Amino acid sequence: MATPYGSLTVNILKGALVKVIGFPTGRSTIGVKQSEGNKVRLTVKTHLTAKPSDGIIAKVMEVANEKCKAGVPVQFFTVQRNEAEALYGECMYDKFQVPEEIKTLTVLYMDGYNLNCVRPDVEYPNNTNAISEIKLLKMKFQTSKQQLEVQVVYTPNTSNSVPIVKASEAASENTNAKPTKEAIEPLISSTGMDMTAASTAPPAPSSDGKKQIVTPWVVSSDDGVDYDKLIRDYGSKPLSDELIQRMEKIIGQPAHPWIKRGIYFSHRDLNLMLDLYEKGTKFYLYTGRGPSSEALHLGHLLPFMFTKWLQDVFKCPLVIQLTDDEKFLWKDLALDECHRLGFENTKDIIAMGFDMKKTFIFSDLNYIQHLYPTVLEIQKRVTFNQARAIFGFTDSDNIGKQAFPAIQAAPSFSRAFKIPLKGLANMPCLIPCAIDQDPYFRMTRDVAPRMKLHKPALIHCKFFPALQGQNTKMSASAQNTAVYCTDTAKQIKKKINKHAFSGGQDTMEKQRELGANLEVDIPYQWLRFFLMDEDRLQEIATKYSSGEMLTGEVKKELIGVLQELVKNHQEKRAAVTDEMVQEFMRIRELEWES
Ligand code: TRP
After folding, report:
1. How far is the CA of 433 from the centre of ligand 1 (A)?
2. Could you identify the atom of ligand 1 that is nearest to the CA of residue 327?
3. Residue 39 Cα to chain centre, angstroms
4. CATH value at residue 70
5. pLDDT tens-digit profile of 7-46?
């Protein structure tokens, strides 16, 4: 017993739920029921792990009623299905599948608020002020299914006679341009808030039954991180050969070996950055470090080595954030200790060879005053529920943690660097980072359009494996899981020989016969990171996997490479003076050729 008013109420209510709770618009409507007495029941799939509070539901009702009062036109469009999917993704769909044979869709659209594929024969009032009030009757949450059921009663507005239109007819008469991708962006990007993989709630097993948890703070999986799954869960894009070639053409030199080897494997909007760059718009680079230990290990240096390469090839300015505040909130460390560690780590960072004139390194504690206006703009646009869904915060996490993500987000916007970036209000930004940092920037990208700013682009790397094997990130605290920048040649040799997990066979005979499993072999995997000579790496891969080379020989090769690298780093670091640290951290205008 559907009525036009009831059908419209469903769409208004859905828009409000998405807006306030922040789950994806697309595919989240599970059930709709209209019944006698102007009642409507809507069931939606959410990311919530607990019943939303009364306050949240009150907010939903408030937003829905505001929409009614605002008198928003309810428009209809006919769109070819493939075109709609290309423009809007899955955003217009409910949970159930629209049959394959349907090639043309009728969509209902309320200005940036709701987009929904509807049955062509259904009737609706053509303006939201056809409803004078929506009142909550009941709310139910099914924890195991994460489903929220909301029952409301609506009052049709009889004092103004809003025309009732049939969806298909209204669509055929509509001469307005269909909503653009940009207009739908807020609805699409709210799908970016569904971070199942980034939540600390138990992860859903993927199709092959593997479990993995990847958040900025925890990385764990049964047998190695499934990066394809991460790309799917996070909704980033694989770094394609085509894109790599395009980059090489633009920079006029080969891409970094880590790009070619798939260590940098995923991105967001890198293509757009290249478009802009080609047209002469420079971007700036942003990366960071959470200073939680004195001694960095090799895994810590990787993102900086890569960032240095990006700075060299794109000749762009760079800002580096030291999140001393983050480490204080998450670790059992005193605040001044975190601050001090930031300065110590800065020396290692400077030793990477960054161009002083183009690089600004800042500690959050020191620079917060300049970040704060931007932090506030971000904080105002992210709800508690969204942060919870992205980062998996629980009720017992301190409130500092909940507020922190905006502080890591803020440097993605050039307005946070009035002096270093010459007051440019909206300079595009590229962020090289490990994939575990992506949740911060999904949040950032979600708020950017609402702040009328460029979304930062990203290029993601895989994790550098621990000596003991593929399945974890290294720890700065467990000595034998990593090689440190402070290790001596002797220590390096001992660690590799004693602790590096081997994919070779147990005996020499078997190794000669079967060869090594390179996938799990740490000496080989580490060489993929640190042996830049492509031909030599290939040769080792062939010979080691066929059994011609033995584990001992590969380890020896790795030890040589690491000893050289670490020695080199130690020399460079020793040459970093306090004055240099001060200069890198001084708030000053950076230089770059435009
Ligand atoms: N949170 C990061 C860490 O713990 C540090 C960081 C801050 C960062 N801003 C960043 C890393 C931007 C990459 C990109 O190490």
Report:
1. 7
2. 4
3. 39
4. 3.30.980.10
5. 999 999 999 988 888 777 888 898 999 999 999 999 998 8
